Amino acid sequence: MISVEEARKNILKEIRAVGTEVISLQAAAGRVLAENVRSRRTQPPADLSAMDGFAVKAADLGTIPASLKIVGEVPAGGSYDNTVGTGEAVRIFTGAALPSGTDTIIIQEDTEFDAETVTVKEGAAKGTYVRPAGLDFSAGDIGIKAPTILTPRDIGLLAAMDIPWITVRRKPKIALLSTGDELVRPGEPLGPNQIISSNSLSIAALIEAAGGEALDLGIAQDNAESLREKVMNAKSADMLITLGGASVGDHDLIQPVLGKEGLSVDFWRIAMRPGKPLMFGNFAGIPMLGMPGNPVSSLICSFLFLIPAIDALNGLTPRTPPRQRAILTHALKENDQREDYMRAVITEETSGLPVIRLFDKQDSSMLSPLSLADCLVVRAPFAAALPEGSEVDIIPLSRCYPSI
Q: CB of 377 within 8 A of CB of 315?
């Protein structure tokens, strides 16, 4: 068996970023930017008023109150085409360009005015309430650097930069193949010895949330012909995920059947709980991750290995789950040779640390504790027994994977 960290390194060193495509800005939220984007315009394009009021020369405000002649008006989107002279002012509205010859805005609350004259009652320094040209960005500036997962905030910036089309990574296609005679899809007739196939749906949802495109190849029966037929549809994908059948039992067919079709195996056992029968290799030129058939095991393995692989396919720095310290509400016995990932809930916080309670049953067949869990308690191989109140490392799931 190899360690979790060694398995992660072995997987990531074989992953290459997928190609790119050009898409409209409207479709870009959540996609990974593949090229730096430079602005096509300056924002604001000219000195603009930040308030409703009067555009004046600061030099005319040496004595307050100051009486100025109103020579025009400029709304947002309009312009005043003459040069404003000494002792003159222009009525202006928020967002309008400052007329030539002015450098300051006096807000209308600080004035009294009629159709011809404005009296300035409060002075202002040069540049007051003026948004200078290029305050936000200038033409040619790099607005967003690649690689970046584009947020709604980024979309707003790109729109302001006058960018209608952008180059992004195409979504990595991840083929999913479930295996086992015992599996049926939700809603289908269920035989006396069959179970619902939850694995493919949860992993497909995780793939989509992590920035990939899930391609469900269906359920292969426990025979070579069915497995071979189903897996051939994975050759157009960027990565293959198999669910179940990766161990060495009599009904575990992944290695012997796919081995004849060109599968080369890097490793197939890992020193972790849950998730020991994890396999990684290359099938028909694409990376392949053989997940345990157990749904809890496959989800936790996906947190640790599949999500970083999807990041790498997207040209991103692979995520490493952040850890923090937490306080146990009960004792823990010593650990064995496998790194353990135990489901827990946060009950309160004390001294700045979360207080956690592990679920009484950690059986890896139980999906309900994982669904309810706030965190995973991580225990190193051969970790010593711990009394109540001890500190442990946790992976806070909401911080790592807010949409997963």
A: no
- Cα-Cα-Cα-Cα torsion 179, 177, 198, 299, nearest 10 degrees, comes to 110
List the helix and strand counts (H, then E) for the chain. Answer: 9, 28
Specify the higher pLDDT residue, 404 or 10: 10
**How far, in Å, CA of 135 to CA of 161, rounded?**
13
Per-residue confidence at 188, pLDDT binned at 50, 70, 90?
A: confident
Pairing state between β 142-144 and 37-38: antiparallel
Q: Which fold has domain 324-400?
A: Beta-clip (2.40.340)
322 vs 293: CA distance, rounded Å:
26
User: Contacts by 258-266 with C-beta closer than 8 Å and gap 24+?
Assistant: 258/227, 258/231, 258/283, 258/288, 261/228, 261/231, 263/288, 266/10, 266/14
Say whether 118 sits in a helix, a strand or coil: strand
Task: Taking the CA atoms of 100, 104, 105 and 110 in sequence, report the sign of the dihedral they define.
Answer: negative
CA distance 43 to 158: 12
Phi, psi of 141 (to 5 degrees): -65, 145
Is the predicted pLDDT of residue 59 greater than 60, yes or no? yes
pLDDT score, position 45: 95
CA distance 72 to 130: 18
CATH pick for 20-43+136-169 out of 3.40.50.300, 3.90.1300.10, 3.90.105.10, 3.90.1150.10: 3.90.105.10
Q: How many CB atoms lie within 10 A of CB 338?
A: 20
State the architecture of 48-131 in CATH terms.
Beta Complex (2.170)
Inter-residue contact 215 to 175 (CB < 8 Å): yes
DSSP structural state of residue 137: B
Please state the φ and ψ torsions of residue 310, each to the nearest 5 degrees: -65, -40
For 352, which DSSP code?
T
Comparing CA positions, the residue from 392, 400, 271 lying closest to residue 338 is 271
CATH of domain 4-16+171-313: 3.40.980.10
